[in-house]
Amino acid sequence: MHKILWMIYSFCFLLLSCESKAQIYPGNTWSSMENREAMGWPNTACSEFTRFIADSTNITGLVLVHKGQIVMEYGNISENSYIASCRKSVLALLYGKYVDNGMIDLDMTLEDLKINDVTKLLPIEKRATIKDLISARSGVYLRASNGGDFRRFAPERGSVEPGSHWLYNNWDFNVAGYIFEQETQSNIYDEINSQLALPLQMQDWDRGLQKKSGNKELSKFPAYHMWFSTRDMARMGLLMLRNGKWKEKQIIPKDWVHEVLKQRTSYLEAQKSVPLLKKDGLDLGYGYMWWLIENTTDLRLKNAYSAQGALGQNITVYPEIDVVLAFKTNSIYRRRNSIQTQMKVIRKAVEIYNAP
């Protein structure tokens, strides 16, 4: 009996070892898939997708990755540009290390953390926790130092208990960035450099480009804006796809990746709070600063999730088929894409795929 159990254990270990060795990661550069057609990506369909990107979108750079290798690319994938609200998903990754080591306690309240703003917080608002902030459920509806959120759909201040209502409000995310730096005594951009850029061997990361901004008369908490290249965004998507592991090293705690992607808000609740979301083309729930693709019958989209930013910035991970999509629209060219266009691209990218 013991011999049989040992044989089963050895066989399982061998399978896991083979799976680990089969996982491909980029080194200093990405490798391209030699025969994408044999891997389920027909050349004709890929060409049609490229024409769609060129003719029907304003995307300036796109990378499609399957099993750690580039299937196709479009435009300039090396230029750094503004990634808008994708920054929030990057911050979610940075939190993991410090939640894991206990330096950040997600149950601490704004009162515990001595957080206040130009417009003073109400007593009920001070009860919001870090967990509420990073899931966009704080119940604090103050104006942020920058725009680009759904604050116009906010209930009356003080009318909802923290944690009970979802609303995508930049005040939450900016304060989450401030708290990260306060509790870790480290700069967000330095953390990107040490936690992500160096271990992931990002090709284009430029610490000098990164800067915070915002109207301090509205809120004392600035937005921590970020600039990345498309191919470096794809590296972050691959890191998430691999549950925080990069080659032989666990970069982000695996349990934290699962926490980030756990549903905190269903697509139904999100659409009830912000009816505009019903028109996006995909049903999106919310985790910890990542959007969750829900209510889909396409198995290729099952359990998929995205980092999304205004104008057309996106990282989407499709775990069921081992695929990462990253694309950007550089605003310096006076180009932009609507959220509806982004959703079309997310769908069409995997409609090409026909598993061999």
From TrEMBL:
Keyword Lipid biosynthesis belongs to the record: no
Domain of life, source organism: Bacteria
Start and end residues of each Beta-lactamase-related domain: 65-333
Gene3D superfamilies, A to Z: DD-peptidase/beta-lactamase superfamily
GO MF entries: hydrolase activity
InterPro entries: Beta-lactam-related (IPR001466), Beta-lactam/transpept-like (IPR012338), Diverse_Enzym_Activities (IPR050789)
Keywords: Hydrolase, Signal
Signal peptide: 1-22
Pfam families: Beta-lactamase (PF00144)
Protein's name in the database: Serine hydrolase
High-level lineage: Bacteria, Pseudomonadati, Bacteroidota, Flavobacteriia, Flavobacteriales
